[in-house]
Specification:
The chain is mainly α. The chain has two domains: about 1-50; about 55-89. The protein is built from four helices and no strands. The longest helix has 30 residues, at about 55-85. The protein is elongated, with a radius of gyration of 23 Å.
Length: about 90
């Protein structure tokens, strides 16, 4: 079937498990639900083996950290300026 779809690399049933897990995660399903659907002994196995972070999720996570850093820098710049002038904030 994969050849008819133009997929040339070999697929196994694990390929479908990875895809299923990733799509469930992308739909916002709880990791415990995914674990039980895949019949894993623990959620750690599900997260470590089958789920992949999708690029938009990675970008969102990185953007949150950048915003946190920028906000702290904005808050500390006036204090730093005053400290250099020998004044207290």
């Amino acid at each position: 079937m994969s050849n008819r779809l133009g997929i040339l690399k070999q697929l196994s049933w694990h390929t479908f498990r990875h895809t299923f897990s990733t799509l469930l995660k992308a739909n916002g399903e709880d990791v415990k639900v995914v674990q039980e659907l895949l019949r894993h002994a623990s959620a750690k196995i599900t997260l470590d083996t089958y789920s992949q972070a999708l690029n938009p999720q990675k970008r969102t996570a990185q953007s949150k950290v950048v915003r946190m850093i920028r906000e702290k820098q904005k808050l500390s710049v006036p204090s730093l300026y005053l400290a250099q002038k020998g004044k207290s904030p």
